Amino acid sequence: MEKISKELIGASSVQIILSLLVKEDTYGYEIMQKVKEFSEGRIVWKEGSLYPVLKKLETQKMIKSYWKVEKYQRPRKYYTLLEAGRKALTKSIDEWTLMQSIFKKINEG
């Protein structure tokens, strides 16, 4: 199976991250693993592409980070979704739904 284009991954990375954070707080490596799993290996994020997006979302006050230490494990930086992130995700879902319907109409005709 071919990998997804960098352009499409870049255009959807914010929405994917926010969608994962709606479900639960999580940390960077886990985000990368979930995306790889959900895409069946077609999207493989590396630290250099994920963490700048997380930093940008944090700067925009869409997410917030905090450190969590679990017994016998090293500290991990977790991310949680803020209200601005929820609103941005709702707007993005509406936009992606519109785009999907346009593609569907074009391909039906």
Task: Describe the 3D structure.
- With 109 residues, the chain is of the alpha+beta class.
- The protein is 62% helix and 13% strand.
- It is built from four helices and three strands.
- It has helices at 6-23, 28-38, 47-59, 83-108, and strands at 26-27, 63-68, 76-81.
- A three-stranded antiparallel β-sheet has the order 1-3-2.
- Strand 2 and strand 3 form a beta hairpin.
- Helix 1 (6-23) crosses helix 4 (83-108).
- The longest helix has 26 residues, at 83-108.
- It is globular.
- The two termini are 28 Å apart.
- 12% of the residues are buried.
Q: Can you tell me the residue ranges where pLDDT is under 50 for at least 5 consecutive residues?
A: none
The strand count comes to 3
Order of neighbouring strands in the sheet with most strands: 1-3-2
Helix and strand sequence: HEHHEEH
Strand content: 5-15%
Largest sheet: 3 strands, antiparallel
Shape label = globular
Number of separate helices: 4
